[in-house]
Design brief:
By secondary structure, the chain is an alpha+beta fold. It has a single domain, classed as Alpha-Beta Plaits (2-Layer Sandwich). Helices cover 40% and strands 24% of the residues. It has a 4-stranded antiparallel beta sheet with strand order 1-2-4-3. Strand 3 and strand 4 form a beta hairpin. Helix 1 packs across helix 2. The termini are far apart.
Length: 122
């Protein structure tokens, strides 16, 4: 995972994240495996629906869930690695759709704790 942080203001930072396809592919595989355990589609026994059929029927939903999980996890990892002191969840400005063979990228705005320096304190 590659993370680049830019200062927007004293209390906001912009985060650019790129997650390699190998990681995304593994997450998609796990998501489809979990989904396949409980899905019962007409013509298939429960838990025996092939992945291509799951992708056709539930692909958009699974991609959205995996993208949400990747954004959330990468935010927390970047928050720890870069010591951002975030005060809220990130606002995702731009997220590329998950495409086979390509890394998942997104941009997010993070609100961070501003530094306060007391002046003329008595």
């Amino acid at each position: 995972m590659q993370v680049k942080i830019e200062d927007v203001s004293p209390v906001e930072k912009k985060m650019f994240v790129e997650i390699p396809w190998e990681t995304v592919s593994a997450r998609l595989g796990n998501a489809y495996k979990e989904l396949g355990k409980g899905v019962a589609l007409k013509g298939f026994r429960k838990g025996k629906v092939p992945r291509p059929v799951l992708e056709q029927v539930y692909g958009h939903r699974v991609n959205a869930e995996v993208a949400y999980e990747l954004v959330r996890e990468s935010f927390f990892r970047a928050n720890q690695e870069h010591q951002l002191a975030a005060v809220a969840e990130p606002r995702v400005e731009e997220a590329a759709p998950i495409k086979k063979g390509q890394p998942f990228t997104f941009k997010a705005i993070i609100e961070v704790r501003g530094e306060v320096t007391p002046q003329d304190y008595k």
